[in-house]
Amino acid sequence: MQDITLLQQALPYFRRFRGSTFVVKVGGEVLRDRATLDALTEDIALLTSVGIRVVLVHGGGAQVTETAARLGIETKFVGGRRVTDEETLAVLTMVIAGKMSIEIVSSLKKYGIKAAGFSGVSAGIIEATRRPPTKVSGSGDEVVDFGQVGDIREVDPAMLNLALDNNIVPVLAPLGADDEGNVFNINADVVAARVAIALQAEKLVLLTGAPGVMEDINDPTTLISVLSLSQAREAIERGIIKGGMIPKVEEAHHALTNGVRRVHILSGLDPHQLLLEIFTESGCGTMLVV
User: Fold this and answer.
1) Under DSSP, is residue 75 helix (H, G, I), strand (E, B) or coil?
2) Residue 143 needs a FRET pair 20 to 30 A away by CA distance; which of 38, 87, 157, 200 works?
3) What angle (nearest 5°) sits at the alpha carbon of residue 274, between those of residues 271 and 277?
4) pLDDT at 2 over 60
5) 169-173/53-58 β-pairing
6) Alpha carbon of 16 to those of 13, 50, 161, 203, 209: distances in Å?
7) Bridge partner residues of 152 (DSSP)
8) Residue 97 has what DSSP assignment?
9) What are φ and ψ of residue 177, in 5° steps?
């Protein structure tokens, strides 16, 4: 009977979101294990089967660091942010735009979904500029040159829409390029938010290693199910939201104030959390609203 109840809850959402666009960002921690990846792509297959247009943006920083170490390339972080020199950029493009993109596309194929791997460089999807040397929290008075790290100037969604119009799921690696053809590493959360804005997506979903925004990061029972932007700002000021969750919430704010209707932050490690969050009344993660 519980399964029937869940289906009854889901039906109105199937109808409501048919024809809508969702941008789903998945972090490297979710992509470490093939079984976890397959569970995610199975969920995406269901979303597409009920007429939802899905763009999948993926990270992979941990995998880049591991591969660089195997190749004897030192990885440098300042204030929690990766310095991307030419050697690191070569590893990054190989791992994220190559190996990981193919693994995701092949996993989607397993569930009968046509997908295509892109990077932001493809067809000028992401026009970027090199980030200028800047002071960063945690680096003292040092001005840090992050190398081939970019800031997004513009997103052109034409290629993404072309794929979506032909029932193809775009799998997007977080790279961009400038007018001179210089390639840049860009934060995947930022890419996902800007793509969601460009597509005027119904939802931006950020899949992480955490269940969502929690009042106590060590206690999953303190999960905050719904969070307004004003409450999120207050939680940051009070130190409830901290660390790596802050930039995710900041990108959520940017998306919500630029046309995206809802942003969800939830775990990508537990099976089928994406479906439970989208298609049940109680959800399972944190939904951010204006």
Assistant:
1) coil
2) 87
3) 120
4) no
5) parallel
6) 5, 10, 20, 12, 28
7) 128
8) I
9) -145, 155
Strand 134-135 with 183-185, pairing:
unpaired
Which amino acid makes up residue 153? R
Distance, in Å, from the CA atom of 83 to the CA atom of 117, rounded to the nearest integer, reads: 25
Asked whether the beta carbons of 186 and 126 are under 8 A apart, the reply is yes
pLDDT of 43 reads 96
Distance separating alpha carbons of residues 168 and 161, to the nearest angstrom: 9
Residue whose tokens read 């995710």: 248
pLDDT of 1:
42
- Give the C-alpha separation, 142 to 146, whole Å: 12
Q: What is the pTM of this model?
A: 0.94
Residue matched to tokens 């190989």: 94
The edge-to-edge listing of strands for the beta sheet with 203-208 is 115-119, 169-173, 53-58, 21-26, 203-208, 262-267, 286-289, 226-228
Task: Give the confidence band of 30 by pLDDT, cuts at 50, 70, 90.
Answer: confident
DSSP state of 268: S
Helices (H) and strands (E) in the chain, counts: 10, 16
State the burial class of residue 205 (Cβ atoms within 10 Å of its Cβ: 0-12, 13-18, 19+).
buried
* CA pair distance 248, 121, nearest whole angstrom: 23
Half-sphere exposure of 35 (CA within 13 A, CB side): 3
Closest to 260 in 3D by CA, of 248, 268, 251: 251
d(CA 91, CA 181) in angstroms, rounded, equals: 18
